Amino acid sequence: MKNPTHEQVLDFVREHSRPFVTTSDVLEKFSTVSRRTINKRLNDLHDRGELQKREIGAQSVVWYTESQH
């Protein structure tokens, strides 16, 4: 799969069975894409206000939309 669009990543977060996803969840879904690319998509969506993020512990982050919170 080529690099996912911002919309594809956002759709995955919205449709996930849990009310949040981890970066690893997104990497698993888009397994042929680098961690760097996924992090960029997630952070771009956060910067645009389309995704929220919360740091859990020292190194973990969860991502969610306002409607999932």
List the SSEs and their pairings.
Layout: H1 6-15, E1 21-22, H2 23-29, H3 35-47, E2 52-56, E3 60-64
Antiparallel strand pairs: 1-3, 2-3
Helix pairs in contact: 2-3
Give a structural overview.
The protein is an alpha+beta fold and 69 residues long. The chain has one domain: Arc Repressor Mutant, subunit A (Orthogonal Bundle), CATH 1.10.10.10. Helix content is 43%, strand content 17%. It is built from 3 helices and 3 strands, in the order H-E-H-H-E-E. It has a 3-stranded antiparallel β-sheet. A hairpin with a 3-residue loop joins strand 2 (52-56) and strand 3. Helix 2 packs across helix 3. The longest helix is centred in the middle third of the chain and has 13 residues, at 35-47. The model has no long low-confidence stretch (mean pLDDT 93).
